[in-house]
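Figure 6 in text form: structure in, sequence out.
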């Protein structure tokens, strides 16, 4: 199909190859990056502000660094630019955080003879987050997923309440506390715990898990082809990965090459104790076949692209359920520039998509 059409390429199943059970420094692994043959990881809240290195081939622990000028309030994601590591202190399960942080570290400091890394802290807030009233593990303003792309940091929320995710974009440097608004959102039917991007082609991956009717949890991944940097408006595929009893609680993902990478699962301590694990993935031979259910409809900038013959079946609603705009007949695109900033819902037969207008 053509670029930027936002087609659902179908849901497939994939069993990631097991690499290793990880040692105790990785009990709560929550973010990964791949550098040469080494994987760097961090742990989330309640742990020291440290970066750990492990061998990609067998998961063996290699080295640890303590990050100075940093506090691990709830480190949840790790990403890298060509010159820096970025640690995202963005976890908010409880719902009481209003200020989040990004720590940047020069990659030139990554020397196994050293034990300390120096970090620079920058803070930010979500413009759309309510000032109060969020309930523990029952709100939409948690976040555990970040990747670097084209001189920006891209964040994806973990929505406990409605099982969607929102996409935010941060610059690499800023002054004071930055306030950011979402640029788009997507229904993932689960909890997003990490993200990674393939620098060779721009495809990106969202990793997560969801609670099944049985009460057990399963892991999944979304692969967005990201044609022309359309992000959620690009073609996508859901990949079911299997039970967390086999994968552990999937919390970290990194790309190691074209369509290849690793994912980590943190330890589960419940009726059973599941060790932290490292798995690999290789999607180079996966098929991507459209399920034929989604028409060619997508948002880009302030324009809705929709075939004119479908206009009578679709409507754009605001958050109050009112029709936000009347369609201009005879066109395959609708100009939404004059709409006020806010959240809108495009509704049609068996179709629902959220669009967030930021300006």
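Output sequence:
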């Amino acid at each position: 199909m053509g670029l930027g059409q936002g087609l659902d390429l179908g849901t497939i199943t994939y069993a990631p190859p097991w690499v290793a059970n990880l040692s105790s420094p990785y009990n709560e692994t929550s973010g990964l990056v791949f550098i040469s043959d080494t994987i760097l990881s961090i742990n989330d809240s309640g742990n020291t502000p440290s970066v750990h290195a492990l061998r990609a081939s067998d998961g063996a622990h290699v080295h640890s660094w303590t990050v100075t000028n940093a506090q691990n309030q709830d480190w949840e994601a790790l990403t890298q630019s060509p010159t820096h590591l970025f640690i995202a202190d963005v976890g908010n399960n409880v719902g009481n955080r209003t200020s989040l942080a990004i720590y940047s570290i020069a990659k030139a400091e990554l020397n196994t003879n050293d034990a300390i890394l120096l970090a620079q802290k920058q803070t930010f807030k979500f413009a759309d987050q309510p000032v109060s009233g969020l309930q523990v593990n029952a709100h939409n303003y948690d976040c555990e997923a970040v990747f670097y792309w084209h001189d920006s940091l891209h964040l994806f929320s973990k929505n406990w309440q409605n099982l969607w995710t929102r996409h935010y974009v941060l610059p690499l440097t800023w002054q004071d506390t930055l306030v950011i608004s979402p640029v788009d959102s997507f229904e993932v039917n689960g909890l997003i715990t990490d993200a990674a991007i393939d620098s060779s082609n721009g495809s990106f991956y969202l990793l997560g898990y969801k609670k099944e009717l049985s009460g057990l949890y399963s892991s999944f991944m979304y692969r967005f082809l990201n044609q022309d940097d359309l992000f959620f408006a690009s073609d996508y595929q859901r990949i079911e990965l299997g039970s967390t009893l086999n994968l552990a609680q999937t919390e970290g993902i990194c790309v190691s090459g074209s369509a290849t990478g690793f994912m980590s699962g943190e330890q589960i301590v419940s009726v059973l104790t599941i060790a932290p694990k490292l798995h690999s993935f290789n999607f180079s031979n996966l098929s991507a076949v459209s399920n034929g259910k989604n028409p060619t409809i997508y948002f880009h900038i302030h324009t809705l692209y929709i075939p004119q013959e479908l206009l009578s079946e679709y409507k754009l609603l605001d958050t109050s359920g009112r029709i936000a705009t009347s369609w201009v007949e005879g066109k395959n695109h609708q100009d939404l520039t004059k709409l006020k900033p806010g959240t809108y819902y495009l509704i049609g037969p068996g179709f629902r998509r959220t669009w967030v207008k930021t300006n």
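Caption detail: The mean pLDDT is 91.
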